[in-house]
Amino acid sequence: MSDPRVSVILPTLNRSELLRRSITSVLQQSYRDLELIVVDDGSSEDIAALVASFDDSRARVIRHEQCRGPGAARATGLAAARGDYLAFQDSDDEWLLNKLDDQVRELDACGAQVGAVFCGWIRYCLDERVWVYPYPQLRKLIATDMRSAVRFHDKWFTQTWLVRRDVFERIGGFDAALQIWDDWDAMLRLSQVCEIRYCDAYQVVSYVTPGSVTDNLPRRIASIETLIQRHQDSGDRALLGRLHYMLARYRIINGQYSAAWRALLPALSTTPASPKVWFTAGMLLLGLRPMQYIWREPGAGGKDS
Amino acid sequence: MPQVSVILPTRNRAATLARAVRSVLAQSYRDLELLVVDDGSTDNTAELLQCFDDPRLRVLKHPPPHGAAAARNFAAAQARGEWLAFQDSDDEWLVDKLYRQMREVERDPAVDLLCCGYLIQPHDAQPVRYQGADTRMQRGEWGDDNIARFSFITPTWLLRRCVFEALQGFDQQMPNLEDWEFSFRLYKQARIRVLNEPLVLKHGAPDSLNWDARARQQSLQLILSRHRDLWAGQPQVRAGLLRELGHWYARTGEMGAARQHFRAAWQACPRSWRNLLTLLAALGGHAGYALLQRLRGVRA
């Protein structure tokens, strides 16, 4: 059997009920030349039986006997992938049936200088609100300056990507040390070695369900610190300014006064023309309270629309 | 014998038809037949349908007179499933649509029509919206006062075939809105519920028949005259329909007819400031009406 062109990696921990929908939407893609690698990260539910019930030789399960976290599960999937292109699926997402077909065609048509394409995403919340990504402002930025868009925006949903495997291996894949923003980090490193294109269509639909992995403040702070370390040498002042500003923000919300200054001062020196950094610094002279009041929604980070 | 018969009427929509058909055949719920009614297509619809290698798909040629209502009735007469579902050539079902709906009707066997929520993706740059149900609709409480707000497009339906047949199907005289009209005949004798989840993605098409103003006028006229008894105790519902009809006349530039319906709306429900305001604006002719629409934020 020759290798499939696309490897789809789907890490999961239990959630069989959702997983059925997610797997169906992959195996029913109009683009057929794919393998689906479901990485069972130590579930108590019988994931192997669920996948077997699809009776499709393109799908297989790799099991971790113990739960090692979503990053490790994805790494296991990546190590097993054989396709030229990589795609990532999640247990609570559904792909529309032309997603891979459109993206493979786009990536085939582009030269090797384009390493990845991604599509739009519709997210339905239980309160009946509908978010779309990219939102209009970001879409404009993507159309004019993709590299700035990657620096400016911190959420890049891997379910929307199709990446060349050789390029992804060259950048070293996802950073296992990052618990949050591993998608952003990979996107940043991708944008340094290749072009990234946007396929202008909503091809992924997801449902926000209770029990999704959520993140907390200490984890965010730790992840930002790691991100700063990784991109310290890139010389990308705009990015470093933004990262330090984000770090200052989370430290302020977390109530760390002097640590907030240690993040804010580098932000001031790398992006001295940013009014919001100066504003934050001015307010911080009055103590933590004013900015905590302005950012009073705990745990909400970045633009989420 | 399949449990669900899916009916898909189409005419000259080869560009989007494959997506619509595939989204039915790819359903995680497998026990279905798909009846595609080719309603006199002149493009490559027939060839396109031959590419699908699935024994569950049947293509029916529909003799004239044409129209979506007639085509759906024609297919329903040949359907074998206990349940009917409808698909449109522009729209896309999410993969668990039938699975979720069939599970729901198993839990609540009294249901005759189970609709679901849907996402609307406009063809222009407008934002994606969700059309769902309020709690009353979810509980299946439909009455004279809220049935006119029934806004679930046929691709969201799962309907008992015997109920469809007892009501003799869609009204073939309706150029459009036949699903809405059907709901007026249905709700008194059947149980309608809504599963409030997005299971269908509706793609807005600029040239969809729905937006043909003349057809709208004719359909609304038919509904108003045919369901007189329904609005007898509900003047504000009747006024709403009359106003709607007035707006459609204004859209085709017939301000005389528009004024006439706005006046009828005001007479039906004189205490409503909205009826009065619309009438006054229309008395100011095109300019007055256009000003009102601008204030309401309606795009021309």
Question: In words, what does this structure look like?
Answer:
- The complex is a heterodimer of chains A (305) and B (300).
- With 305 residues, chain A is of the alpha/beta class.
- In chain A, 45% of the residues lie in helices and 20% in strands.
- In chain A, strands 1, 2, 3, 4, 5, 6, 7, 8 and 9 form a 9-stranded mixed β-sheet that branches.
- In chain A, strand 1 (6-12), helix 1 (16-27) and strand 2 form a beta-alpha-beta unit.
- In chain A, helix 5 (136-144) packs across helix 6, helix 9 packs antiparallel against helix 10 (237-253) and helix 11 packs antiparallel against helix 12 (275-284).
- Chain A is globular, with a radius of gyration of 20 Å.
- The N and C termini of chain A lie far apart (44 Å).
- Mean pLDDT of chain A is 88; it is low at 298-305.
- Chain B has 2 domains: 4-209, Alpha-Beta Complex (Spore Coat Polysaccharide Biosynthesis Protein SpsA, Chain A), CATH 3.90.550; 234-296, Serine Threonine Protein Phosphatase 5, Tetratricopeptide repeat (Alpha Horseshoe), CATH 1.25.40.
- Chain B is 43% helix and 17% strand.
- Chain B has helices spanning 14-25, 45-50, 68-76, 97-107, 135-139, 161-166, 178-186, 213-226, 228-231, 235-251, 255-268, 273-283, 285-296; strands spanning 4-10, 32-38, 57-61, 83-86, 92-93, 113-121, 129-131, 158-160, 192-203.
- In chain B, strands 1, 2, 3, 4, 5, 6, 7, 8 and 9 form a 9-stranded mixed β-sheet that branches.
- In chain B, a hairpin with a 7-residue loop joins strand 6 (113-121) and strand 7.
- The termini of chain B are far apart.
- The mean pLDDT of chain B is 90.
- Classes of the chains: A alpha/beta (305), B alpha/beta (300).
- Chain A binds chain B through residues 20-21, 24-25, 28, 30, 94, 96-98, 122, 124, 128-130, 132, 136, 202, 205, 207, and chain B through 19, 22-23, 26, 28, 92, 94-96, 119, 121, 125, 127-130, 132, 196-198, 201.
